[in-house]
Inverse folding.
């Protein structure tokens, strides 16, 4: 038998993902991102009255009961969901139309309009908030416009549409770029009318983009604090705005509990989005 | 819809914007504020890039199945409410918070280790563990901005690294360059467009951060957005608030224009070649 | 073939801005034939196909289907259907739904749709795959779906845009035969666009060669190969060697040609391109007549060459490789023989291809039997070799006949 040397498996020169140094950076970054959230979730079950985020005093769910029993908080939560649902719905219609218009037609100043649509994506949120606040004050809609639900939320809804529809339009446009124009021509060639082409061919192709765009718009609306803070009146409170005022007041396990609920909701949405996307990809992979 | 809001706000500003508001921006305390905003954002952005690059590299070179999961792992916090994340950090960073607890524990262990090797009497680490004050200090704000924008920085870095052809790296090594040389002379320059995008995408929102300086800065580390907010919600000095937010907007546009200009120049250079 | 054309394209031009994609193209397509539009990319063949399908409108000219004007009809109202280059099989529909789509648009009853869809799937051998989604099919199967989808509508005209270009070589050969069989069984007129001359030759009854937006020649595959109208067509449909012509004239019913690279030659009139004699005698009728009348009208033929020489530039003498023979000794009697040296010999299966080097450059290729190739091989690289051929196998062609002849 000849001498045979066995090498332990060594990473190839550019398998950066197998280098322990880089892996540990990744691990630390991951810990950095997750530890605060986990601590928040864990201490939402802490049985301690004040400053409850330091010493563990036993397991309890009483702060969840307290959070769910807090009428203001629940009202704010309801407002947030209402705003998110309505603004997402309108955003997605606007976004689909905008995306198709910008994709389909050539018209003067098109790059200018494209830039205008993309603007809210790049500018700092606070600038969005300021300009929207000024817009609403100019037309006299700042603060409470009506006492009837959900009309009292209308300015917040408009504000949310303004900043979320460009994101949705961007997602839908990306999807449009993968559309094979021959599909459209094939349907026309087989006798479909322009509207039938839209309904039978273009819309099904866009569906994953529309779903992704809607989920994005929904999450953005759910998350938004700054713009709502600037455009809402003193009596219309959304969930983040309510949490903000509670945090400023004091740090209590109740906030942890409410936050945990929102985190779970976001997690659920993300999971849903991924499932849908995977399914669509499996379906229409061509 | 947006252009509507934008135009109206511009009109509004024009009607009220005397040079007073303009001049007030150049007052020393506002200049201090602007400078603080820029350096805090800059430090946070640079740290994000330095930490984000290896993280992006790990994701980009992982196996396809792992890639999706690692990416999700990094992006998940990004989907979580900004306010909640800031709040969660608030819990950690307090003087009696987790981070100081951890540091205190580390201090004790180190001291034990020093006594063990017989250096305990030297008091190298101080008499007693002093909790680091994060809240209300710039370090806390920087940490907070890093925390919320790290996923933002990683994404463009990842996408530029992901698209990179590994044969460039292999060619470099084949020509005799070492790991480090290849990294700095080939990998980093090739990833430069991604690095620039990551810089802009991190730096611009950082400039406009409100929640983090507000909650973690405790009103002692104000950034531009906090002052803007106070003009609107407290002081009711809207024109000055708009002037400041317009400043912020201009900075954003200048950065984006520089970026677009750089891209165009690069495209021109490449087309000549 | 009936004389009554199913489609008449008359003086059709299409301009995109200043660019002329098609210039004054006239041709008839007969019922029941496979008609090929052949040309290099950018020649205008796809534009012509899109004009037929209705996605482009001609800038000038007439388009008739069954003697009725087709131009005002929108694509979804034309009894003309198309198999797209990318097949454009709708990814979110099952195979059955894809095939049924055109019938649903017509408003055909459900029961009829079911039976016609099944029939169409059977025609393209996809029975049993009706419930599959396109992403579960191979490229070849997807093409069959695209075919079934248009066959089911029983169109007057079926257009195929580069139907075989996306398939691998083996499948392509099988599909050629199948397309021809399918066309025979359904009897629908096919128009195929292709840039692959061998594909057009194998499938089509008649081929229209286009270049730079102009129709160069419309002929059967055999005619196209044996009697190309000019050097472009000759070269496009198969390998050919061209020699510059210095002068040409007609004496004693023979064409006297001189060339810088060949000895002076006397050629029979049959070597002349139809483009050369259609010019002077256009008044006296078609091509056939002209060829027969050459002996009686020598003067006008001489004029013809003289005029063509000055009108559309140079003439060339051309010979196809299969007409060239090779010999290690000087051939005793050959109309044309050239001395060269042996270059590469490539084995091709039933025959070999010999490269003959003249004046230091690889100049000619000849197709030789394998036995002869072995002898040449034994003689060795660089050994002298004679290439020779019969003069009547050559073709006298204008370099570019700007107007095609029918």
């Amino acid at each position: 038998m000849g001498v045979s040397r066995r090498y332990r498996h060594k990473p190839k020169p550019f398998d950066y993902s197998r280098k322990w140094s880089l892996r540990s950076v990744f691990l630390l970054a991951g810990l950095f991102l997750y530890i605060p959230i986990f601590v928040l979730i864990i201490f939402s079950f802490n049985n301690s009255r004040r400053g409850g985020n330091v010493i563990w005093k036993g397991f309890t769910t009483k702060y969840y009961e307290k959070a769910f029993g807090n009428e203001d908080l629940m009202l704010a939560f309801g407002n947030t969901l209402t705003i998110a649902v309505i603004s997402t719905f309108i955003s997605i219609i606007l976004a689909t139309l905008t995306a198709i218009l910008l994709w389909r037609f050539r018209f003067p100043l098109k790059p200018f309009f494209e830039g205008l649509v993309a603007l809210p994506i790049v500018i700092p949120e606070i600038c969005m908030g300021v300009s929207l606040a000024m817009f609403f004050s100019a037309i006299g809609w700042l603060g409470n416009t009506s006492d009837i639900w959900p009309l009292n939320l209308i300015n917040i809804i408009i504000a949310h549409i303004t900043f979320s529809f460009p994101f949705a339009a961007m997602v839908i446009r990306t999807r449009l770029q993968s559309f094979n124009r021959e599909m459209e021509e094939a349907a026309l060639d087989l006798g479909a009318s322009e509207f039938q082409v839209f309904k039978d061919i273009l819309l099904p192709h866009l569906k994953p983009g529309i779903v992704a765009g809607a989920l994005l718009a929904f999450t953005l609306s759910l998350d938004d604090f700054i713009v709502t803070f600037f455009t809402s009146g003193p009596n219309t409170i959304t969930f983040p705005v309510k949490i903000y005022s509670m945090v400023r007041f004091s740090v209590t396990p109740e906030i942890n509990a409410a936050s945990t609920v929102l985190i779970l909701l976001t997690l659920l949405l993300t999971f849903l989005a991924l499932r849908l996307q995977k399914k669509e990809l499996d379906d229409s992979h061509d | 819809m947006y252009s509507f809001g934008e135009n109206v706000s511009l009109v509004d500003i024009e009607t009220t914007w005397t040079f007073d508001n303009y001049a007030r921006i150049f007052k020393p305390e506002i200049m201090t504020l602007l400078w603080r905003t820029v350096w805090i954002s800059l430090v946070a952005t640079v740290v994000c890039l330095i930490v984000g690059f290896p993280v992006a590299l790990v994701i980009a070179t992982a196996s396809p199945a792992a890639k999706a999961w690692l990416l999700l792992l990094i992006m998940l916090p990004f989907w979580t409410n900004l306010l909640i994340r800031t709040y969660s950090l608030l819990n950690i960073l307090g003087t009696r918070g987790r981070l100081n607890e951890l540091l205190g524990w580390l201090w004790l262990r180190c001291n034990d280790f020093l006594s063990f090797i017989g250096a305990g009497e030297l008091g190298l680490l101080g008499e007693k563990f002093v909790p680091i004050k994060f809240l209300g200090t710039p370090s806390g704000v920087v940490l907070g901005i890093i925390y919320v924008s790290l996923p933002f920085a990683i994404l463009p870095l990842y996408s530029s690294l992901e698209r990179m052809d590994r044969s460039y790296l292999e060619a470099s090594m084949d020509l005799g360059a070492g790991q480090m040389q290849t990294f700095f002379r080939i990998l980093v320059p090739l990833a430069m467009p991604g690095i620039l995008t990551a810089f802009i995408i991190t730096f611009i929102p950082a400039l406009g951060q409100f929640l983090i300086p507000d909650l973690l800065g405790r009103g002692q580390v104000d950034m531009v957005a906090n002052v803007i907010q106070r003009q609107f919600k407290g002081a009711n000095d809207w024109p000055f608030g708009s002037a400041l937010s317009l400043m912020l907007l201009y900075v954003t546009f200048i950065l984006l224009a520089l970026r677009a200009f750089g891209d165009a120049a690069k495209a021109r250079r490449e087309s000549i070649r | 073939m009936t004389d009554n054309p199913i489609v008449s394209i008359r003086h059709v031009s299409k301009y995109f801005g200043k660019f002329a994609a098609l210039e004054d193209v006239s041709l008839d397509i007969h019922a029941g034939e496979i008609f090929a539009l052949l040309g290099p990319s950018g020649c205008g063949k796809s534009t012509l196909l899109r004009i037929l399908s209705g996605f482009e409108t001609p800038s000038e000219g007439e388009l008739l289907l069954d003697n009725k004007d087709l131009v005002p009809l929108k694509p979804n109202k034309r009894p003309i259907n198309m198999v797209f280059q990318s097949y454009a099989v709708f990814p979110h529909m099952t195979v059955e739904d894809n095939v049924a789509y055109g019938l649903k648009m017509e408003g055909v009853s459900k029961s009829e749709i079911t039976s016609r869809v099944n029939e169409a799937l059977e025609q393209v051998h996809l029975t049993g795959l009706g419930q599959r989604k396109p992403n579960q099919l191979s490229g070849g199967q997807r093409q069959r779906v695209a075919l079934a989808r248009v066959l089911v509508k029983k169109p007057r005209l079926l257009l195929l845009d580069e139907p075989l270009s996306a398939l691998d070589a083996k499948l392509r050969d099988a599909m050629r035969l199948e397309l021809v069989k399918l066309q025979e069984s359904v009897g629908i007129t096919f128009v195929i666009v292709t840039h692959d001359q061998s594909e057009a030759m194998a499938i089509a009854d008649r081929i229209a060669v286009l270049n730079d937006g102009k129709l160069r020649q419309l002929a059967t595959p055999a005619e196209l190969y044996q009697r190309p109208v000019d050097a472009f067509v000759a070269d496009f449909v198969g390998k050919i060697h061209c020699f510059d012509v210095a002068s040409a004239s007609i004496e004693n019913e023979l064409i006297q040609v001189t060339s810088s690279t060949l000895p002076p030659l006397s050629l029979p009139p049959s070597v002349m391109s139809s483009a050369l004699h259609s010019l002077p005698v256009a008044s006296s009728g078609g091509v056939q007549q002209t060829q027969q009348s050459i002996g009686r009208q020598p003067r006008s033929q001489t004029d013809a060459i003289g005029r063509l020489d000055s009108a559309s530039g140079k003439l060339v003498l051309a010979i196809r490789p299969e007409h060239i023979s090779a010999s290690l000794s000087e051939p005793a009697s050959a109309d044309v023989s050239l001395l060269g040296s042996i270059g590469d010999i490539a084995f091709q299966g039933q025959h070999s291809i010999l490269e003959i080097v003249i004046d230091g450059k690889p100049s000619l290729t000849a197709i030789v039997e394998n036995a002869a190739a072995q002898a040449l091989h034994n003689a060795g690289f660089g050994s002298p070799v004679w290439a020779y051929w019969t003069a009547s196998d050559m073709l006298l062609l204008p370099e570019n006949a700007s107007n095609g002849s029918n």
Observations:
- Chain A touches chain B through 73 residues (CB under 8 Å).
- The mean pLDDT of chain A is 80.
- The CA atoms of residues 47 and 57 of chain A lie 5 Å apart.
